[in-house]
């Protein structure tokens, strides 16, 4: 066979085989497509069934929720129905009660109307009877209505006047006793609640020196240092044989304190000559001014008095170096401030104003050597100059009864000033008299026969005497108290009154064996 024929034959066979295989593949593909379609249909059916099932379940759950909501709403409706039924029942009961009250009110109104008619009738009858009685009285007495009225009123006025006069006298006596008792309690309470300590001031200051050689340096060559010191400070320096001390003397306490500090600084420095003395004294004066201002501020704080002019504060600080019968005036002013405030508190007055009046009452003593007049007038002038109120100015001017008191605060300041100055221990002279009076009081009582022990108490306002019960009976004790009181009145000088108490005690002791 020829080769070309063979090739064609092979080609045809190859084409035929390819077509055969293609057909085989297409048949397989058709088969696979049918299977896929069938599978897809099956899955779609499953999905549709699942969705239908899910929809049924959702529908069932929604139906259950709707049923729950409907049941809840039904329960609420039932509750509201029950409440409405209950309220309706209450309203019916109230309506029934109102009807009953209306009926009772109508009944009471009818009864009241009948009673009013009866009362009107009785009033008319009473008026008629009274007119008849009045006419009869006028006929019997022979007086007309106006004359009888005047006579009756005069008699009532006379009787009431006597009774009122008696009541007024009685109440005046009771009121006097009560006011005296209250005033004593108020003053005693004020003294008890505030009693500060006082220190006595002197006119000399003692300065310690390291050695007696320092005395020569203080005196200086031919006395030039001591003369320069006395001239600069205005004090007297006493250098005597007393070992280890030098004395500075002056009646002006500020000047004396300044000189004391100046000399102490010079002794510590060791350089003592006229120019150094003047330099140190000038520095000390500035320090003293600041110290005085600080003392004034501290006094204002302690007295609880604020808002003062700075010049007043400075003057109150200067009172630290002023004494009155050996009593420190600055401390005395603080005490008077508190005492006046306590008294004002008892009387329901302005406590702050009262303390201010008491604190500033003696401010004139800080400047009375610079201005003419006594310290009350000087203090009033200063306070008026620096803008204090009328009550404060008047308290400073009138606390020694120099003028008529126009304000209650002036009276309180005068009382507090007397309490502060007069209580034992405040002033040296008062303390000595106080101790002497107690001794004389006890000695006088001890001189009576039968007295065992004597005690003066209550600052000398009471004396308690213990007598021997074997020698003094009750009647003799009563007579002895009068005799001792009479002897005190005739012999001693004392403020106020003294209570004499006789105490007699007898004891009987036996033993049962």
Describe, in short, the structure shown.
This protein has 513 residues and is mostly helical. The chain is built from 14 helices and eight strands.
Fraction of residues in helix: 55-70%
- DSSP E strands, number: 8
User: Which CATH class of one domain applies here?
Assistant: Mainly Alpha
Distance between the termini: 182 Å
Give the C-alpha Rg.
58 Å
Find the structural class using helix and strand composition: mainly alpha
Shape: flat
Beta-strand proportion:
5-15%
Order of helices and strands: HHEHHEEHHHEEHHHHHHEEHE
Instruction: Please name the fourth-level CATH homologous superfamily of one domain.
Output: Hypothetical protein af1432
Oligomer: single chain
Rounded mean pLDDT is 79
CATH level-3 fold name of one domain = Hypothetical protein af1432
User: Regions with pLDDT < 50 over 5+ consecutive residues?
Assistant: 197-201, 424-429
């Amino acid at each position: 066979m020829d080769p070309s024929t063979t090739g064609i034959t092979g080609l045809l066979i190859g084409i035929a085989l390819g077509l055969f295989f293609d057909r085989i593949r297409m048949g397989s593909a058709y088969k696979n497509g049918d299977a896929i379609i069938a599978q897809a249909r099956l899955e779609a059916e499953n999905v549709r069934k699942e969705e239908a099932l899910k929809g049924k379940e959702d529908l069932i759950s929604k139906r259950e929720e709707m049923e729950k909501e409907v049941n809840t709403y039904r329960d609420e409706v039932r509750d509201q129905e029950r409440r409405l039924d209950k309220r309706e029942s209450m309203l019916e009961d109230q309506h029934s009660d109102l009807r009953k009250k209306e009926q009772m009110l109508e009944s009471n109104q009818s009864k009241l109307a009948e009673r009013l008619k009866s009362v009107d009738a009785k009033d008319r009858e009473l008026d008629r009877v009274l007119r008849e009685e009045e006419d009869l009285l006028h006929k019997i007495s022979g007086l007309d209505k106006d004359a009888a009225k005047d006579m009756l009123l005069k008699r009532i006025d006379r009787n009431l006047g006597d009774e009122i006069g008696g009541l007024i006298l009685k109440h005046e006596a009771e009121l006097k006793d009560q006011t005296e008792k209250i005033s004593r309690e108020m003053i005693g309470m004020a003294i008890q609640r505030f009693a500060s300590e006082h220190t006595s001031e002197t006119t000399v200051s003692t300065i310690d020196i390291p050695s007696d050689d320092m005395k020569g340096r203080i005196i200086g060559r031919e006395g030039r240092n001591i003369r320069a010191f006395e001239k600069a400070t205005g004090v007297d320096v006493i250098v005597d044989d007393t070992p280890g001390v030098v004395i500075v003397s002056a009646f002006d306490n500020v000047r004396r304190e300044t000189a004391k500090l100046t000399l102490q600084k010079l002794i510590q420095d060791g350089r003592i000559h006229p120019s150094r003395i003047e330099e140190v004294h000038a520095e000390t004066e500035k320090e003293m001014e600041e110290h005085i201002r600080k003392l004034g501020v501290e006094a204002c704080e302690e007295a609880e008095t604020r808002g003062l002019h700075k010049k007043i504060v400075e003057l109150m600080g200067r009172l630290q170096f002023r004494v009155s019968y050996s009593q420190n005036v600055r401390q005395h002013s603080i005490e008077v401030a508190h005492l006046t405030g306590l008294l004002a508190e008892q009387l329901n007055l302005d406590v702050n104003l009262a303390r201010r009046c008491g604190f500033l009452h003696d401010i004139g003593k800080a400047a009375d050597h610079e201005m003419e007049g006594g310290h009350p007038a000087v203090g009033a002038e200063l306070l008026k100059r620096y803008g204090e109120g009328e009550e404060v100015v008047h308290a400073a001017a009138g606390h020694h009864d120099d003028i008529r008191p126009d304000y209650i605060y002036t009276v309180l300041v005068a009382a507090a000033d007397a309490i502060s100055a007069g209580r034992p221990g405040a002033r040296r002279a008062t303390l000595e008299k106080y101790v002497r009076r107690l001794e004389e009081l006890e000695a006088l009582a001890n001189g009576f026969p039968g007295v065992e022990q004597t005690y003066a108490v209550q600052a000398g306002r009471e004396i308690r005497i213990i007598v021997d019960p074997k020698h003094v009976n009750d009647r003799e004790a009563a007579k002895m108290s009068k005799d001792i009181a009479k002897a005190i009145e005739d012999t001693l000088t004392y403020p106020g009154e003294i209570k004499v108490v006789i105490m007699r005690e007898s004891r009987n002791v036996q033993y049962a064996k």
